Amino acid sequence: MKQLFLTLTILAATLTTIAGNAKTISEEMSLVSLQGKVIDSESKESLAGVLICISSYKVYTDLDGNFSLELPYYMLEDKLKVSYISYEATEIPASKGKIETIEIKQVN
Description:
Radius of gyration: 23 Å
Largest sheet: 4 strands, antiparallel
Number of helices: 1
Order of helices and strands: HEEEEEEE
CATH architecture of the domain at 31-104: Sandwich
Number of strands: 7
CATH topology of the domain at 31-104: Immunoglobulin-like
Helix content: 25-40%
CATH superfamily of the domain at 31-104: Carboxypeptidase-like, regulatory domain
């Protein structure tokens, strides 16, 4: 009887540990990657160093104008803010997690 009780206790402890890890895995799975490219609306040239913000997440474009952000899925409801010196600040929806190309306009 004691052996059965001990076995059940160990089994319960193991299942509790697995359930705790499952929560961590589901939290990680809720992250999405948001990727895109920023170009000048007139010349169609890539822009390096453009600031991309969504909530408290920030990233700058690379030398080819590309950016990538890993953020929680629920943030896809927010707007993506794009800003660059001597260009108009732009806001676009971040839905679906994939943004092909963002064109920004130079201030006249």
